[in-house]
């Protein structure tokens, strides 16, 4: 009987040292996203030192953290720009922002893409030295934060 107790005690110690496995039934597909700090810069004529730029952070309702997104040069290119997390992409048309995410869907873990659009109203003001970008126009979302819905599977 004494050896059975030691065996149970040893088994208990080993099982508590093993990592716990989280069941897949708690995974979540993204349905909404939030854009924070959306800002654009358009250089003034003659400002060749600083290109046009767009930058912001984005998060989704899965609470996986914020992803940084930016593009310089042709900021309204028809090609999608990749964010700091390569599963997140965006396009900026000058009035609408399209964001996309690639993720493993629940519960079957098939890789899929989802996209959503938001119309952005921006407050713009002149940028002059000593502003980091020099002469031009800087625009920002007035509220600092805008939310949207992932609503389709293609750009």
From TrEMBL:
It comes from the Eukaryota. Keywords: Signal. Residues 1-17 form the signal peptide. This is AA1-like domain-containing protein. It comes from Venustampulla echinocandica.
């Amino acid at each position: 009987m004494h050896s059975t107790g030691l065996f149970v005690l040893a088994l208990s110690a080993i099982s508590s040292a093993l990592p716990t496995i989280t069941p897949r039934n708690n995974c979540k597909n993204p349905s909404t996203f939030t854009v924070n700090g959306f800002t654009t810069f358009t250089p003034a004529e003659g400002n060749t030192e600083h290109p046009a730029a767009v930058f912001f952070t984005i998060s989704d309702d899965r609470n996986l953290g914020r992803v940084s997104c930016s593009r310089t040069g042709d900021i309204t290119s028809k090609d999608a720009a990749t964010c700091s997390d390569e599963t997140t992409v965006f396009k900026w048309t000058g009035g609408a922002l399209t964001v996309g995410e690639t993720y493993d869907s629940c519960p079957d873990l098939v890789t899929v893409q989802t996209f959503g659009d938001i119309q952005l109203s921006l407050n713009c003001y002149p940028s002059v030295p000593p502003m980091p970008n020099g002469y031009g126009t800087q625009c920002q979302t007035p509220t600092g934060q805008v939310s949207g819905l992932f609503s389709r599977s293609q750009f």
